[in-house]
Amino acid sequence: MSKRFTARTVATAAVLALTATGLGVPANAAPSDSRTFTVVAEDGVAADTAVAAIRAAGGTVVSRSDEVGMFQVSSDRADFATRATAAPTLIGAAEQKAIGRKPKLDRVEQEHLTAGARAGAAGAAKKGAKLDPLDDKLWGLEMIQADKARKVEPGDRRVTVGVLDTGVDASNPDIAPNFNWSLSRNFAPDLTDVDGPCEVSSCLDPVGTDDGGHGTHVAGTIGAAANGFGLSGVAPNVSLVELKGGQDSGYFFLDPVVNALVYAGRSGIDVVNMSFYVDPWLYNCTANPADSPEAQAEQRAIIKAMKRALIFAHNKGVTLVGALGNNNEDLGAPRTDVTSPDYGADPYPRPIDNESCWDLPTEGPHVIGVSSVGPSGKKSDFSNYGTEQISVAAPGGWFRDGFGTDTFRTDANMILSSYPKHVLQEEESVDADGNIVAGFENSVFKQCKANGECGYYTYLQGTSMASPHAAGVAALIVSRYGKAQGRTGFGMSPDQVEQHLYRTAAEHACPEPRLQQYRNEGRDETYDAYCAGGVNFNGFYGYGIVDAYAAVKTPLKPNARP
């Protein structure tokens, strides 16, 4: 999920509170009495009617997404948010405002780099598929039979997979051959109080760059080229589209995410991977009594805008795949939320009512929710689960897998994929000359061509790493069974993709005992997880672990939904 693990921006960050928003005025803009808000209209309200209500409340519309009834607004009125929320045609308004609290880091994805974790971290390479030089470390490819699948269907260049993330480093030699420059877009301008100084004067990073690293890692798992160099992805011939909706620091705010989803629908993108949750609320609730009226209105706006955007993208032919989350939690019986808001104000305890609270986008409409398993096939200790939202499982890595063997707490238990060199340098695992720093030889890899062009790769773990395995299989399904659409289009109904993905997943029964504990791995009772359900569908594995080979070898059902 949204990582917040890169320490480089934290040292200087005095966080800008884009509560429920994000696509706003860069933090280095000139001071002004005007403030920025995100406003969401009520259901059935015409865009022009909403604009009129915004103006009546004292606001000026800066940008608008009519498809989802969302507007970015500036106003110099101190009471604008109150006036907008009171308008019968508007759900609410959330202000962007600066505060001085730094982001809270989530170290799940880089657990192997934390203090005390390095002992014995070398391990042996997992017995993976040997295609490109580093593929013997990709146990995930072998688990889902992607190595066999590509002999039948390696992916169709016409199939586009949107990486809705922190960006994509198109300079990596494994990403470059499959990167779609014409469709890629950046929807998340840098915000200096969050992301550090802007790299360019406009604060809008060029397409093909990634200052966070997360998106490049996700992209490599989906579709790194099988080119005899570095490593290969699940669907090595599909086109990768950068949809930058996450800040460099790892936050994902409403405006960029919604705008990216609307764009994906408009542009005919086939699959979108979403390895994050929308900040600042881990759960968005309609009327949580722990929240202020303003926070309640803000969350109702997030829920409405996200659901509209997901439905819009789905109806336009986008298959939506999302990470289930790294909170070691049953999404059908959530715990008290003690981390929200993670941004914009200090967090406070929020008991979560499952009927009126959502973890978005993974609990949104039409999203294929993916849990994480380690090399043993056991649910990763950190992975969310539960019969309510899970769809399938996929390799996401688990550093602590293999208790009692020499693989326990080794880097090789995680997911290796592409990563930007400059981010590794900022994380101090690669030096200024581009060489791997001593002590990181088993977690960072460098591959170079004869012409001196190099690619870098590192291990991460999380449901963020599981979701792109499933997205890659979805892309193979579209490649194998998609049809020409119109004069120039090509694609497949997302309902049909989803149905086939579920039908061909490798069924996996609940473990015995069903109540899994992780004491041997050093986890306390908060990690205890009960697996409900049967072989066909259960809370740990959903319909099963995705199977790329079965997906491209099994004919579509004749009566599959169109």
Structural description of this entry:
There is one protein chain. With 562 residues, the protein is α/β, with parallel strands linked by helices. The chain has twelve helices and 21 strands. Strands 7-8-6-9-11-13-14 form a seven-stranded parallel β-sheet, sandwiched between helices. Residues 2-31 and 99-105 have low confidence and may be disordered.
Outline the fold blueprint.
Elements: E1 16-18, E2 35-41, H1 47-56, E3 60-65, E4 70-75, H2 80-86, E5 90-98, H3 139-143, H4 146-152, E6 160-165, E7 185-186, H5 192-195, H6 214-223, E8 239-244, H7 254-267, E9 271-274, E10 284-285, H8 293-315, E11 319-323, E12 357-358, E13 367-373, E14 390-395, E15 415-419, H9 421-426, E16 444-448, E17 454-460, H10 463-481, E18 483-485, E19 489-491, H11 494-504, E20 515-516, E21 529-530, H12 548-553
Parallel strand pairs: 6-8, 6-9, 7-8, 9-11, 11-13, 13-14
Antiparallel strand pairs: 1-5, 2-4, 2-5, 3-4, 10-12, 15-17, 16-17, 18-19, 20-21
Helix pairs in contact: 6-10, 7-8, 10-11
